[in-house]
Amino acid sequence: MTVDINYVQNLTKDGQVYNDLDPKVVAARNHALKTVRVYNNKVYHQNDYDYQLLRPLFKQLGSAPYIEPNFYCEFGFNLSIGDNFFANHDVVLMDCAPITIGNDVNIAPKVGIYTVNHVEDPVARAHHQIYARPVVIEDGVWIGAGVNIVGGVTIGQNAIIGAGSVVTQDIPANVIAAGNPAKVIRPLKNH
């Protein structure tokens, strides 16, 4: 089945509920999975960070990216990534809604950004009904190891998110935040 990006983007936009097993959604997800599998294998077996494989998959991938394997994204076409992006091992970007990442962002190992969520109704949930909300990560953010970020969140410029945190609400610029749920610990020094 051909990937119908417009169909999937319209289906997943604005937090509307949709069926995660819709054949066109599955085809788009499988296309991304195949692409990132080839990318990850080239890095592992040939030490070849071939970003030309990822560029057509993403909405935007800025200059000088550095993305370690095992990288995973749900679709890719909802990813807008700025310049000097660094993603360490095992980063998961579930881009069922747009994920916008600014310039000079560093993401540590085992970070997950999850725009998608299941509906609360158990009957609808059993029928694979989900919805998604966007995530924005502004310029200069550092996200520590093992952080999980859920949909509908913005992390402000230069913020640092402590390792193991769960970000469920907006984090302002120029602060250190940590915990479950993540809360502001203090402002950054020199800001």
Automatic annotation (TrEMBL):
Keywords: Acyltransferase, Repeat, Transferase. GO terms for molecular function: galactoside O-acetyltransferase activity. It holds the Pfam family Mac. CDD domains: LbH_MAT_GAT. Its EC number is 2.3.1.-. Residues 15-62 form the Maltose/galactoside acetyltransferase domain. It is an enzyme of class 2 (transferase). Belongs to the transferase hexapeptide repeat family. This is Acetyltransferase. It comes from Ligilactobacillus agilis.
